[in-house]
C-alpha cells in the first residue's frame, strides 16, 4: 500500500527527514533516486544559506526552519472531493486546471492528461514515469540550479509537483492554471517540484495561484524548472495570496533558447514571508525575457525578490521591473543582478525597482546590480524608494477627490504599470480588483479561496 | 461671492501676503497681475487650500462661509476650482478615471447619484471639443508626457467638466503659444455665466486681450497696490512693473 500518511513532528533534521523520505514507498524512477541522493549529500555539505550569503542577507532561514512542521512523503487521502471545496470563481477565466494539494498533484497517480495537439500536464512524479526522456533531459539540469542549498534540499526531498509539456509548434489553446492549495490541520512543511517544458515553437499561458486555505503555519520551499525552446513563447502569471502564517521560498529557473520570449508577472499580495528567486538564462540569440513583479505588504510581512539574469549569448533582451507598496512594519528586499558575459554583445538589459513606503517603520532594501563583460551593450538599472507625491495628492483633492481616495488612486496608479502587463484579461481584472481592495486595507480573496474550516473537512 | 479681508499668509515663517483685500461678485472676472514673487501664486494657494501656506491673519468668506476652514476637496465641492500653474503628472491614473471620480465625488457631496456612463462619455466629448483637446489625451495618464500647452489645455478641460462657481486660473497663459492661448481663453469665455466668477492670475497682459476682466489688481510685495478697470492692464504693459515698483518702493 502506497497510500499511507506519514507524519513526523520534529525540529528540522534534514538527514532524518531524508532517510524517512527514502524509506517511504512510492513509484520512483531509479534515475531520480540517484539524483536525490547526490542532492542530499550536497545539501549536507552546504547547509542552509547563511548570513555570509549576500543574497540571503536579510532573511533568517535558521529560525524559519527550526520551527516544528509536519512533513508528508506521500499524497494524502482526502475525504472530500476537492472540486466541491474549490472552484476558481474568476469570471470568464477558462483554463485547464491543475490542483496541487499540499504540494502534491491532486488526482493521485492518474496518468498525465493529454490535450489535442499533444500538450500533456499533470503530476511531476507521473511525468518521470511516463515521459522519462523529457524528464531526465531537463530535471535538475539548469546550471543556475547549483546556486544554494535550498534547491538541493528540494531536489532531495520533493515528492511531487506539477508538470506541463507543450510539444513542438503547438500552442496550448486555453491557459493552464495551477492552484496551490494548502489545507492542513497541522503546521506543514512542503517542497513542491515543478517542471514546464516548451519545445521549439510552442506557446503557453500559465497561471499559478497560491492559496493557503487553513490557518495553520506552513513553509513551502518550491523549485520550478522552465525550459523554453527556440521560438517558443511563455506567458506566466503568479498570484501569491496567502496569509500571515504562510511562508514560501520559491526558485524559478528559466532557460531560454533562440528567439524565445518569456513574460513573467509575479503579484505578491499576501503572505507572512515570501522569497522569490528568479533565475533566467538567455541561452540563444534573440531571446527576450520580461520579468515583472508587484508587492503589497503590510503588518509584519516580509517580501524578498531575488533576480539573476544571465545574458550568455549576443543579441538578447531583458527587462526587470519590480514595484511595491509597503505599509506598517513590512520589510521588502529587492536584489537584482544582470550578468552580461563577454560574448553577449548587443545585449539590452534594463532593471528597475520602485517602492513606496507608507510609514516610518516600513523598510525597503534594494540593490540593483549590473555586471558587464561585453563592450557593446545597452544596459541600465535604477531603484527608488519614496513616499507618495503630496503635490499630486493636493492636485486630486483640489478636484474634489477626498484625501483617502486620492491616496488610493495614487497607490493604485503606481501599481498599474505592472498590472497592465498581465495579458489574460479576466485575470488582470481580478488582480486589479484585488489590488484595489488590498490597498483599501481589505482582505482580497476570491470567494472560493477563502479560509476553510479544517474540522468540517475531517482533516 | 468672495470677500477677502486683511489676509496675511506665510510660507516657512516668511510673510508672503501682507494684508490682501478683495471683493468679487458673481458674473465678474478679476485679473491679478504683478511682478514675479509678488505673492500671486500664494494667494491662489490660500484660496484652494494648500497646507504649505499658513494664514496668520485675516478672513476669506466664500458665499458667506469661512473658506479657510474648508478642506481642499470641500472647497471643490462648493464650486472652487484652481487651474494650476504647473499641473502635476500622475502616472498610472487615467484621465477618464480621474475625471469620473472627481465628478462623482462632487455629485455625492450634492446628494446626487453617480453619473451614468453614457452621460459621462457625452460630457467628455462635448468638453473636449470646447477646448479643442486631442482625443487621445483623455485615454492617457493624467498629464503624463503632455506638452506644456497640453497640460494647460487640460486644466481648462477639467474646469469645463467640473463647471466651477469660482475659477482661479494661476498663470494659465504661461508657456502657451498664441493659438493655444486663444483656444484656452475662448474656453474660459464660453464657460462664463452671470452666476460664476473667475480670478485670472497672470504676469502678462496678452491673456487679457482675450479674457476681458472687469477689474484688474496689481499685487506687489504681498499687497494689492492698485485696482482699476481693464485699462490698467494696458498701462502696465506699456510702463512695465518698474513703474509699480518705483511708486511703492519710494
Task: Draw up the topology in text.
The complex is a heterodimer of chains A (459) and B (250).
Chain A: H1 14-23, H2 30-46, H3 61-65, E1 70-71, H4 82-85, E2 96-101, E3 104-105, E4 113-114, E5 120-123, H5 124-130, H6 132-138, H7 149-157, E6 162-166, E7 176-182, E8 188-190, E9 193-198, E10 203-212, E11 218-228, E12 233-241, E13 246-256, E14 261-270, E15 273-282, E16 288-297, E17 302-311, E18 317-326, E19 331-340, E20 348-357, E21 363-372, E22 378-386, H8 390-397, H9 403-419, H10 425-439
Parallel strand pairs in A: 1-8, 2-7, 6-9, 7-10, 8-11, 9-11, 10-12, 11-13, 12-14, 13-15, 14-16, 15-17, 16-18, 17-19, 18-20, 19-21, 20-22
Antiparallel strand pairs in A: 2-3, 4-5, 5-6
Helix pairs in contact in A: 2-7, 5-6, 8-9, 9-10
Chain B: E1 2-11, E2 14-24, E3 29-33, H1 40-48, E4 53-62, E5 65-66, H2 72-77, E6 80-83, E7 90-94, H3 95-109, H4 117-130, E8 141-142, H5 148-162, E9 166-170, H6 178-191, E10 197-202, E11 215-220, E12 223-228, H7 231-239, H8 241-249
Parallel strand pairs in B: 3-10, 3-11, 6-9, 9-10
Antiparallel strand pairs in B: 1-2, 1-4, 4-5, 7-8, 11-12
Helix pairs in contact in B: 5-6
Provide structural commentary.
The complex is a heterodimer of chains A (459) and B (250). Chain A is α/β, with parallel strands linked by helices. Chain A has one domain. Chain A is built from ten helices and 22 strands. Chain A is globular and about 70 Å long. Chain A starts with 13 loop residues before the first helix and ends in a 20-residue tail after the last helix. The two termini of chain B are 35 Å apart. In chain B, helix 5 runs parallel beside helix 6. With 250 residues, chain B is α/β, with parallel strands linked by helices. Classes of the chains: A alpha/beta (459), B alpha/beta (250). At the A-B interface, helix 8 and helix 9 of A face helix 2, strand 7, helix 3 and strand 8 of B.
